[in-house]
Amino acid sequence: QVQLVESGGGLVQPGGSLRLSCVASRNIFSIYTMGWYRQAPGKQRELVASLTSSGSTNYDDSVKGRFTISRDNAKSTLYLQMNSLKPEDTAVYYCNANNIWTTVAYWGQGTQVTVSS
To answer: Any idea what the Cα angle at residue 34 is, between residues 79 and 5, rounded to 5°?
Structure first.
């Protein structure tokens, strides 16, 4: 079992920045693809960014050039640096871990990001 705990959400003005963190209860990055998802009210959960065990990244077109996914192996922590935030980025952001060999997946509890003036 793996626990994922997100933090770093909050209220920010348009154009501002936030950094989300996701701490895993053990070091799983070598065998899990990590991702950040978000879900806005009335919408489906969508993938924002992903980071494979080999270090490859992928971003949704809506956040390319503004968001950066990264990890610190020593701290078992996944990050999402969010710059130039827009009101449409408002959502609950979830950390996700998908085992690269099985169908096992874990989710964090989510952290609210609100972009508003």
So the answer is: 60
- The pLDDT of 3-25, averaged and rounded, is 97
Six-digit token pair at 33?
A: 């693809």
Q: Where are the beta strands (DSSP E) in 1-117?
A: 4-7, 10-12, 18-24, 32-39, 46-51, 57-59, 67-72, 77-82, 91-99, 105-107, 111-115
Measured CA to CA, the distance from residue 53 to residue 86 in angstroms comes to 30
Per DSSP bridges, beta strands 4-7 and 18-24 are antiparallel
pLDDT in tens, 61-105: 999 999 999 999 999 999 999 999 999 999 999 999 999 988 899
Q: Which amino acid is at 78?
A: L
What residues contact 1, with CB distance under 8 A and at least 6 apart?
A: 25, 106
Structure tokens at 96: 């996700």
* Token code pair at residue 73: 């192996």
- Is residue 30's pLDDT more than 90? no
